[in-house]
Amino acid sequence: MSDRIDDLDRKILVELQADASQSLDEIARKVGSSKTPVWNRIRRMKETGVITRQTAILDAEALGLEACFFVLIRTSEHEADWQRRFLDVLKRRPEVLEAHRLAGDIDYILKVRVKNARAYDTFYQALISEVKIHNVTALLSMEEIKSTTVLPV
Q: What does the entry give for GO biological process (predicted)?
């Protein structure tokens, strides 16, 4: 699909990533086009899956979610049934912001956002009660240096 994205599409995507609440008129003015072509391009990019959704980005600390943990998981279980149960558990846990399956010594890494260490322990206890895990290492982020949802288009 990226071969069908031209420079105007990229400019539109940059504007939407900066602030998706902008009006079509604002976006069109900023990218040097008119409203109708911009609307058509946005619609096409939604239909083709380039734009998957529009959402609001919230400040976790302002909501009392001050602790961010990166959770490294090693498992001795690699069967499909275990993996399905594990993924179901992760999908049900709102604390899990991201989950990645990795190559190498660590099988999975989770980004978990909670109120404090006690809330993390509650999450951890629930996780290990629902699915067998060989080893869990939790790393507390002391400072968020960079966080973005903006892709380099």
A: response to amino acid
Stretches where the chain sits below pLDDT 70 are 1-3
CATH of domain 61-140: 3.30.70.920
Tell whether the torsion through CA atoms of 31, 35, 36 and 42 is positive or negative.
Answer: positive
d(CA 135, CA 82): 15
User: Would you say 139 and 69 are in contact if contact means Cβ atoms under 8 Å apart?
Assistant: yes
pTM of the predicted model as reported, rounded to 2 decimal places: 0.87
- Domain 2-47: CATH architecture, name and number where available: Orthogonal Bundle (1.10)
Q: List the beta bridge partners of residue 99.
A: 110
What is the amino acid identity at position 8?
A: L
pLDDT in tens, 90-99: 999 999 999 9
